[in-house]
């Protein structure tokens, strides 16, 4: 609670001083090595099931499609690839497919880095994945896109006829501006692009948060509920003085909370919506929801029961796989297809 209070007090101080945007930009441009982030990521995987289950949900859905298909090319377009940590596991699985692996094409999309080399991180992710694919003899091709997502055209994605096409976006749609900022908003523009791509499946993960309200008091209160749940989970599952826990608290959740509290308008990039709000948005954007795979749900529930603290929640509602802590739902996963597919 002290750590959470410290971060929220920092956010309030920056808001009162009118320096939220400058502080947030300074934080996100601070160099943190991929190795340090990987260590923190590994700790997060061990401490809680949220990311591991999300990766399992996404990889298993993709693998099921690849196994059913007669096509020898699998194309994954990932919005928000970051370091691409989830894909080595899939590459390994593809390598052991009967009859040999398909060609794997990954289009990694993310926001540009500040400075002279906007695509540096995405390209570095591509090189790491290419090396991994080489180790497992999986034919591989990587296409890096580092620009504002609402400026991407369908031809930039280099979609080929006859390939199995999977679009993956885990928890990053929340970083796109919504209608409260601009009517023709980037969030809907990107969903429209995905619909035009006509993917075989669109795998979507959302942060189930109500802290996007335009009214500050409401937003602050909801953010406090959300982040106190995450900090309580870390306090229960990870010793206090492990450096990786501090990195997660300060440089992942802390930066997000700073943005929610201290920034306004187009500078506020943390804009989650609840999974029920997202469901309505997806239907309006021309998508139909696919049934939740019972096998995936059963395995997810068993894995959490066997390996994690009893207070973790795995549930389902309206074809969403829900993940939470002590009764509060934090993340939701679902699969979609364009209606006119």
TrEMBL record:
<keyword id="KW-0804">Transcription</keyword>
<dbReference type="GO" id="GO:0005634">
    <property type="term" value="C:nucleus"/>
</dbReference>
<comment type="similarity">
    <text>Belongs to the GRAS family.</text>
</comment>
<feature type="region of interest" description="SAW">
    <location>
        <begin position="262"/>
        <end position="337"/>
    </location>
</feature>
<dbReference type="Pfam" id="PF03514">
    <property type="entry name" value="GRAS"/>
</dbReference>
<feature type="region of interest" description="Leucine repeat II (LRII)">
    <location>
        <begin position="124"/>
        <end position="156"/>
    </location>
</feature>
<feature type="short sequence motif" description="LXXLL motif">
    <location>
        <begin position="173"/>
        <end position="177"/>
    </location>
</feature>
<dbReference type="InterPro" id="IPR005202">
    <property type="entry name" value="TF_GRAS"/>
</dbReference>
<protein>
    <recommendedName>
        <fullName>Scarecrow-like protein 14</fullName>
    </recommendedName>
</protein>
<keyword id="KW-0539">Nucleus</keyword>
<keyword id="KW-0805">Transcription regulation</keyword>
